[in-house]
Specification:
The complex is a heterodimer of chains A (176) and B (668). Chain A is α/β, with parallel strands linked by helices and 176 residues long. Chain A has a single domain, classed as Glutaredoxin (3-Layer(aba) Sandwich). Chain A contains six helices and seven strands. Chain B has 668 residues and is α+β, with helices and mostly antiparallel strands. The chains are: A alpha/beta (176), B alpha+beta (668). Chain A: Keywords: Cytochrome c-type biogenesis, Disulfide bond, Redox-active center.
């Protein structure tokens, strides 16, 4: 009888382990690890893409209006693919701010001309200053910033039409 | 027009392969329990059909990559028209969907060969084995079709160009490392199927063990090479000079390797002595289960890792269900049926049997240690006890001493006899080897010209304690032959395989001990004209240039290296690359490899004013790490070529093989 129980031990161990693994599935490490969540949007002082003379800083994002901040670059094919979705979001009345990342002014403006411009304004960040503060590791990335300028949601990579419906819009509603 | 249909053909082929797999898993098993030869005979053709159609699907995906068909989502996300053709070819398995397809292809392949080279086994055993393999295939094909379709299209807005392959993966390492690793993981499915078949059939004899051993050795050899390649790749590609990070995914590959190693040794006892049967079965089940667990950990996103694929909870859930069914059912069958096959054979506490048992227990303890460290963050998080990650200190503190203890027994194992060993004989044969290992190991660290280090000494003593007794044993084995050469020729290939495998372990231990403790690293700011001295070498930056690659731009430093007291010098060219399509920066390390040391130069950050943060490293004996891995794998393969297995592999004609099979059954 004790031998029987001994033989059942591996099964019991495995069942306990799978319970934990099941629990683990609902804990997404990407959500856990986003260090900027619920923090202030980092401070910066950069020119805009549209007008080199115009400097913008954090006050751009604490205007009492919810803002989606999208990091993009002319060199990034995924950014081109997600432009229709971004234009759609802007048509829905959501305020959009772009960060033209690691690009030249000329190429960035050309990109907006070709693929449309959903952004109220674009922050020009050719040297990854703001990108570094935000912890951006690849374009595109999108941050949802609430009325007080606090980061509430972070989307890494391409935003598909499905992502708009399932993630972006619900989050916008939640923090409105 | 037909070219455009390639992805659909591939998708359809996968569906057909699934149907083959379902038939393969049901009919032979039913046939085996009803004793109906006709149903059992379905096993081989179904396995062949399944392999054919999975191969067609795989070829279709590869074709989509080679032809730059960016209407396929998978290709658009992971390839680019500028990518060289060989990276397009290997990009197929550089992503989640494609790599699962490769998994399935290999699974079908192993299944087919297991079915094909099993003619001398009893029909019902073959039927059960092939059927179990079929079930595993069903699981994976369903996984692909339901959650991870690699042939998904993006229509009608087909992108102009692909997003490019992750630059980290654009390397010879990617071409070699995943296939070798998967071959190992998947290869253990064969011995797993054998274990389940033995439990279902209630029969486990020496013939069974002899048959399972080559498959186990081969899978283990692949896994060993895969792990070694992964470590080598991380070493030169990530730019930190580390070779093992105790990353969850690395651990996921180490776990089945550890139990697989235990399994090889346990199988030896089962074949020679007819004992350890429950152990062998449990290890066979555990090894494949841990391979599946590794898959779960990588693809479900429950743990953060540099290897993680795109996360999708639905995939994770599917694999967990798959894991639950496969492992849960197997362990249940094990608990219910193991008493039927087990068989007690007595042995003395000083015997090869006992030493192999200790080896198994040690390996299992190490496995549990690594497993606990890997899932510990998950346990804490699930129990809401906070977020902690268990780092290298935990693993090193436990893994290193446990390994040393195991190696003490490893030195004794090959010299000891089965069943019972005379203590005086053992002492007489080993005192010299032990004393030599101790003295040489203690003195050697002085010769390196650096300060004496206890860990290096322990490492060297351990390594020599493994090697010297084997040499002594070889000496004793050939003593009675007319000439030494004749004696050496009579030694079996399986024995040489064992020797080589153990030598590999010793070589790896030397590499680990020396490079971990005598590694020298300098982080310096360098501009043209600056120089730095590291371990007797002078590194001078002569110029900073830039160049353009096929799909990247690079800053490049030219470093002139001169050894002190030598006139000759050579240049090293580290680079910092920017991959255009993804805008991703990458460090391209400059390496000067050598048998006794590597020189390693990597570019860090651009510090402005024409200078860079440079990382210069001197890594003694680092090559030995991977050399040891290759020796181990070679040992595993060499053992497979032993005469007593070769007869099995060459007898393809069932009639011719039958007489050979009969007596074995009779003796069982």
């Amino acid at each position: 009888m004790t031998r029987r129980l001994l033989l059942l031990l591996p099964l019991a161990g495995f069942l306990v382990l799978s319970l934990f693994l099941y629990q683990g599935l609902s804990l997404n490490p990407f959500h856990r690890d986003s260090a900027l969540m619920a923090r202030d949007f980092p401070a910066f002082d950069l020119a805009t893409l549209e007008d080199p003379e115009r400097r913008v800083d954090r006050s751009l994002l604490a205007t009492g209006e919810l803002t989606l901040v999208n990091v993009w670059g002319e060199w990034c094919p995924e950014c081109k693919r997600e432009m229709p979705q971004l234009l759609d979001l802007s048509d829905r009345g959501i305020r959009m701010v772009g960060i033209s990342w690691k690009d030249t002014r000329e190429k960035g403006l050309g990109f907006l001309e070709e693929f449309g411009n959903p952004f109220e304004v674009n922050i020009f960040d050719p040297d990854n200053e703001l990108g570094f503060e935000l912890g951006v590791f690849g374009a595109p990335e999108t941050f949802l910033v609430d009325r007080e300028g606090i980061i509430r949601y972070h989307h890494t990579g391409y935003i598909s039409p499905g992502d708009v419906r399932e993630h972006i819009l619900p989050e916008v509603e939640k923090w409105q | 027009m037909q070219i455009l249909m390639i992805p659909e053909i591939g998708h359809f082929a996968l569906v057909i392969a699934l149907l083959f797999a379902v038939t393969q898993s049901v009919l032979p098993l039913v046939g085996a329990s009803l004793r109906r030869p006709l149903l059992m005979a379905y096993a081989r053709p179904m396995a062949a059909g399944q392999l054919l159609f999975v191969a067609i699907a795989y070829a279709c995906l590869t074709a989509s990559y080679m032809l730059d068909d960016f209407s396929v989502l998978n290709v658009a996300n992971n390839s680019n028209s500028m990518l060289p053709w060989y990276y397009k070819f290997s990009a197929v398995w550089g992503n989640h969907e494609g790599s699962v397809l490769l998994w399935s292809l290999m699974l079908a392949g192993w299944g087919y060969f297991a079915a094909r080279y099993s003619r001398e086994l009893p029909r019902d055993v073959v039927a059960r084995v092939v059927s179990v393999l079929g079930m595993v295939c069903v699981g994976f094909l369903l996984f692909i079709l339901v959650t991870s379709n690699p042939f998904e299209r993006i229509l009608p807005n087909v992108p102009q160009d692909g997003a490019d392959l992750n630059p980290l993966l654009q390397d010879i390492g990617l071409i070699l490392h995943p296939p070798a690793l998967y071959m190992g993981y998947v290869g253990f499915s064969v011995v797993f199927a054998f274990a389940i078949a033995a439990l279902l059939g209630g029969r486990l004899d020496a013939a069974w063990a002899r048959w399972a051993r080559p498959w186990t050795n081969l899978a283990w050899a692949f896994l060993t090479v895969g792990i070694a390649l992964g470590s080598w790749w991380a070493y030169y590609e990530l730019g930190w000079g580390g070779w093992w990070f105790w990353d969850p995914v690395e651990n996921a590959s180490l776990l089945p390797w550890l139990t697989g190693t235990a399994l090889m040794h346990s199988l030896a006892v089962t074949e020679k002595r007819g004992s350890f049967k429950s152990w062998t079965l449990l290890l066979a089940i555990s090894t494949f289960s841990l391979s599946l667990l590794g898959t779960f950990l990588v693809r479900s996103g429950v743990l953060t890792s540099v290897h993680a694929f795109a996360n999708d909870p639905s995939r994770g859930f599917f694999i967990l269900v798959l894991l639950g069914i496969t492992v849960g059912l197997s362990l249940l069958i094990f608990a219910l049926r193991a008493p039927r096959v087990s068989h007690t054979v007595s042995f003395n506490w000083l015997s090869r049997d006992a030493l192999l048992l200790i080896n198994n227990i040690m390996l299992v303890i190490i496995t549990v240690t690594v497993l606990m460290g890997t899932v510990y963050p998950l346990l804490l998080d699930a129990l809401d006890l906070g977020k902690i990650s268990v780092g290298p200190p935990y693993f090193n503190a436990l893994f290193v001493p446990l390994t040393v203890i195991m190696c003490i027994f490893m030195g004794l194992g090959p010299v000891a006899r089965w069943k019972q060993t005379d203590v005086r004989m053992l002492v007489k044969r080993l005192w010299l080897a032990g004393a030599a290992a101790l003295v040489i190991g203690m003195i050697m660290p002085f010769i390196f010209g650096q300060e004496w280090n206890a860990w290096v000494a322990i490492g060297l003593v351990t390594a020599m304690w493994i090697v010297f007794p084997m040499l002594r044993d070889l000496y004793d084995k050939t003593r009675h032959a007319p000439t030494r050469l004749a004696g050496l020729k009579k030694v079996s290939l399986a024995y040489w395989g064992m020797q080589l495998g153990h030598l590999g372990v010793a070589v790896t231990i030397v590499g680990v001990a020396v490079v971990s403790n005598y590694n020298i690293e300098r982080n310096v700011r360098m501009g043209p004209g600056d120089s730095v001295q590291v371990a007797g070498y002078t590194f001078t930056m002569t110029e900073l240039t830039s160049r353009q690659g096929p799909n990247f731009l690079a800053d490049r430093a030219v470093i002139e290296v001169q050894r002190d007291g030598s006139r000759r010098s050579f240049t090293m060219n580290p680079e910092k690359r920017l991959y255009i399509a993804r805008g991703m920066p990458m460090t391209q390390v400059a390496l000067r490899p050598g048998f006794f040391r590597d020189l390693y130069v990597a570019m860090g950050e651009d510090l402005g004013d024409n200078s860079w943060a440079m990382r210069v490293q001197y890594k003694p004996f680092v090559r030995w790490l991977w050399l040891g891995g290759l020796l181990m794998a070679a040992g595993g393969v060499l053992a497979v070529t032993d005469r007593r297995y070769r007869r099995l592999a060459t007898s393809r004609d069932p009639e011719a093989a039958a007489p050979a099979g009969k007596p074995q059954e009779a003796t069982a």
